[in-house]
Amino acid sequence: MAYDKRGKKLERHDIAKIANQINSLELHGLTKNEIKVFWAVLSQMANQSDNKIIENGIHFSYNEIAQLADLKHLSKRRLSNTIGKMFEDLTQAKFIEKTDVPGKYRERIVVPITNVDISEEDEDIWVLANKTLIPFLRNLKATYTSFVLANLMTLNSRYSQRLYTLIMQWKTTGKFSYERDLFYKLMDVPKSYRRSGQRSTIDVRIINPAIKELNEKGLTQNLRCKKEYVSSGEVGRATLSKYTFTFKPQKIQLSDKDTPNTSNGKFRKIKPKNVKSADKKKQEDKNDNFNREKKNHKSTVKNHTSSGSMIDSAFGNLFD
To answer: What ranges does the record give for the region Disordered, renumbered to this chain (predicted)?
Structure first.
C-alpha cells in the first residue's frame, strides 16, 4: 500500500481526477508506458481526504505502479527504466498559468515534480510534488478532468492516450477545439510533421488512428475531427487554424463509486469498464452477420417449400 513519510496510507483511486491545468501539461517525449506511469502516480496523489498527505512525499512500490499502470508484464529492469525515464522527462514538463487582464498580466510556470528517489534494489520510489501544484490536486469542486484510470491503460498509442484525456475534460459537452499550435504541443506532434507540406501526416499517423481506437474500444461514440481554415491572403490558399472534435456527450460525472471492484483499499489491477477490443468487436459483427444470413436463409427455404417438407425440416434442424 502506498503511504507518505508519516506512514499514512493513501486511499486508492480508480478514477483519475485532476484540475484542468494539470491535464494541459505538455508531456513532451513520453512513451505510452511512461504516460501510464504518470497517470497512475498522479491519480493516487490527488484528492486524498488527508490534505497533508501530498505534502510529505509519497512512497510507491514497483508492484503497485505495475498494477495501476497495467505493466505487470514488464521485467523489473524494464519497469525501473520506464519509471526513471518518465520522471526524468517529467522534470522538463510544465504548465503555464496566465492571468491576462489589461495592466495585470501575470504568468506562473509550474514544474509538477520536484524530487524523486528511485531504488531498484528496494523496488520502490519516493515522489515529492511541487507545493505549487498541490491546490490543483485536492479539494476539486469545478473545472477538473476525470476519467476511469483502467480505460486509459487499455490504449495502445500515446496519441490515443492524450486525445482521451482531452476528451474527458469536455465529456459532458461533446465538443472542444484547440488552436493549431496549441493542439500540436498538447499532442506532442513531432516538429517534422508540423511543416505545412507535411500536415497530412498528422491525420494519417496521429489523429485518424487515435479516433479509430477510441471509437472501436467504446471509450467514445461518433468521435470526429474537423479542421478549420482561414484565408492566407493569397488567392486559392488557406491556412489551417484550428482542430475541432465532436463526439456523443457523456452525461455523467465520474467518482470512485462508479468502479465497484474493491479489495479492502489495496492496490490491484482494475478491469476497464465497457471497453471493447477491436477483435471482440469484429467477432460480434461476424456473429451478427451470421445470424442475419441464418434468418434470411430460413425465410428463403420456407418460401420455396411447404411448411412440412423434408427440406424445411432439414434446414430448421441445421440453423435452430
So the answer is: 254-309
